[in-house]
Amino acid sequence: MISDFPTSPSALARYVDGYWPAAPVLLKESERLVLRERIRALLVREKAVLVAHYYVDPEIQSLAQETHGCVADSLEMARFGRDHGANTLIVAGVRFMGETAKILSPGKRVLMPTLQAECSLDLSCPIDAFAPFCDAHPDRTVVVYANTSAAVKARADWVVTSSIAVPVVDYLDGEGHKLIWAPDRFLGDYVQRQTGADMLLWGGACVVHEEFKSQALRDLKQLHPDAAVLVHPESPADVIALADAVGSTAQLIRAAQTLAQMTLIVATDQGIFYKMQQAVPNKTLIAAPTGGQGATCRSCASCPWMGMNSLVKLAQCLEQGCNEIILDGDLSTRAMKPLQRMLDFTRAS
Ligand code: SF4
Questions:
Q1: Strands, E, within 214-346: which ranges?
Q2: Could you tell me if 239 and 213 are in contact, meaning their C-beta atoms sit under 8 angstroms apart?
Q3: From the CB of 206, is ligand 1 less than 6 Å away?
Q4: What is the rounded distance in angstroms from the CA atom of residue 113 to the CA atom of residue 321?
Q5: What are 262-286's pLDDT values in tens digits?
Q6: CB of residue 186 inside a 6 A radius of ligand 1
Q7: CA dihedral for 166, 123, 307, 146, sign (positive or negative)
Q8: Which residue, judged by its Cα, is nearest atom 3 of ligand 1?
Q9: Spatial CA neighbour of 94 closest among 48, 149, 145
Q10: Which listed residue, 76, 104, 268, 275, has the most CB atoms within 10 A of its CB?
Q11: Could you tell me if the CB of 184 is within 6 A of ligand 1?
């Protein structure tokens, strides 16, 4: 079952001002090098650590690595920030990641290169629409994906990431729970098929993953018959059906290492290629196609909001201490409960 809230990108564009972010500014090589050095010095001055997502600009991922920060998925980013000794976390990703870091580390200062980096899944699920939807189904346990606002997390019973969505839902199904799942309908559909759980799905989608095309992927497979296909489960079901491995960003990187094939077609944001290529330097990585018949580009798998994290904005937030994540204390405490359930489940499993 899928709810009827208007959550397709075209529908959302009519509801949300500033939905599409501005294009990033291109830097000259000399400017880039100066900025990198400036950011290194500012991280030391501010006693801060840089925590970056796999989908941000490789420039920022490499800076995070070189300065002993981390490059990871959203859950690992938050866990790393919580456990690190620094009192200031610089979160390069999208806003819900900064919020999650703040929920897990309420005593730390959390800054972001921009607070305008959204996520179509988060935008698709405003608390004003989601809370009444949950209230209308009081017999259902509410499970939300990490890609949601702090307010939506606070309304949930459980938070999950794509890496543990299947085992958590399987566990809840075994305990006899009927579920509300939000916001990604494709991931929800995948989890439902894997577990057989009774799930009422919210209708959101990721603007990057929903664009992968199964026919174009089949055509690409014909050109590379020995390639393995790696797919993130936010993709449509007919694309997932062609996969040799389905998983979260971290799970796809591990699959790239363990699969025998030397050529890998990868259906997720192309930002992952930076860390994946480090993990499998001898393998060839190909972006899965998003363009159908007659399209002018083969693959446009780049999140526009992740792309807003630039070196310029990163330096500015460190220099000025701006773009701080501030959360209401009560909201943060309520959002921590379903997050803590997920962390406890991860530890126990
Ligand atoms: S890639 Fe998709 S799920 Fe990830 S932040 Fe961008 S819009 Fe959200």
A1: 228-231, 245-246, 263-267, 284-287
A2: yes
A3: yes
A4: 10
A5: 999 999 999 999 999 999 999 999 9
A6: no
A7: negative
A8: 206
A9: 149
A10: 268
A11: no
- pTM for this prediction: 0.90
In this structure, which residue's CA is closest to atom 2 in ligand 1? 206
Those residues with Cβ within 8 angstroms of residue 166's Cβ, 6 or more apart along the chain or in another chain = 191, 194, 195
Q: Are 308 and 281 in contact (CB under 8 A)?
A: no
CA of 205 to the centre of ligand 1 (A): 9
Q: Is 205 in the pocket of ligand 1 (CB under 6 A)?
A: no
Region 155-175 average pLDDT:
97
| CB of 265 shorter than 6 A to ligand 1 | no
Determine the pLDDT at residue 298. Answer: 64
Q: Is the distance from CB of 123 to CB of 302 less than 8 angstroms?
A: no
**Minimum CA distance residue for ligand 1 atom 1:** 303
- Whole-angstrom CA distances from 101 to 55, 83, 124, 175, 234 are 17, 11, 21, 30, 22
301 within 8 A of 288, measured Cβ to Cβ: yes
Helices (H) and strands (E) in the chain, counts: 16, 12
Structure token pair of residue 297:
């580009």
pLDDT in tens, 14-60: 334 454 555 556 788 888 899 999 999 999 999 999 999 999 999 99
Q: Which atom of ligand 1 is nearest to the CA of 207?
A: 7
pLDDT tens for 205-225 read 999 999 999 999 999 999 999
What is the DSSP secondary structure assignment for residue 16, as one 8-state letter? S
Site of tokens 């993709």: 235
d(CA 236, CA 312): 35
Q: Cα(269) to centroid of ligand 1, in Å?
A: 8
Ligand 1 nearest-atom number relative to CA 122: 8
Compute the distance between CA of residue 211 and CA of residue 36 in angstroms, rounded to an integer. 33
